[in-house]
């Protein structure tokens, strides 16, 4: 489905009836899913959402790097 759930973002309100599992009932808020294309990586060095580039290391391993500062992301 290519969806991700981001903490403290995209809240969905769910109206529930009182039942045995939820005796209180009412309106419950929880995080909803976002499509993966709408999420970007956060660079620790730049402290901003960044675009990535692929770089081949000396040992033929491909890694993603920050386009702005060149920081290597862990895979």
Give your account of this protein's structure.
- The protein has 75 residues and is mainly beta.
- It folds into two domains: 1-39, no CATH class; 40-75.
- The protein has strands at residues 3-5, 11-16, 26-31, 33-35, 41-43, 48-50, 52-56, 62-66.
- The two termini are 21 Å apart.
- The mean pLDDT is 90.
Topology record:
Layout: E1 3-5, E2 11-16, E3 26-31, E4 33-35, E5 41-43, E6 48-50, E7 52-56, E8 62-66
Antiparallel strand pairs: 1-4, 2-3, 5-6, 7-8
Biggest pleated sheet? 2 strands, antiparallel
Number of domains: 2
Gap between N and C termini: 21 Å
Shape: elongated
Structural class: mainly beta
Total strands: the figure is 8
Any descriptors?
mainly beta; 8 strands; 2 domains; two-stranded antiparallel sheet; 75 residues
Quick overview of this protein structure:
Helix content is 0%, strand content 45%. It is an all-beta fold and 75 residues long. The model has no long low-confidence stretch (mean pLDDT 90).
């Amino acid at each position: 489905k290519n969806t991700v759930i981001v903490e403290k973002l995209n809240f969905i309100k769910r109206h529930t009836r009182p039942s045995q599992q939820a005796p209180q009932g009412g309106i419950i808020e929880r995080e909803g899913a976002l499509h993966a294309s709408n999420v970007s990586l956060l660079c620790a060095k730049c402290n901003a959402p960044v675009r990535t580039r692929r770089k081949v290391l000396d040992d033929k391993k491909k890694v993603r790097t920050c386009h702005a500062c060149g920081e290597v992301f862990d895979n």
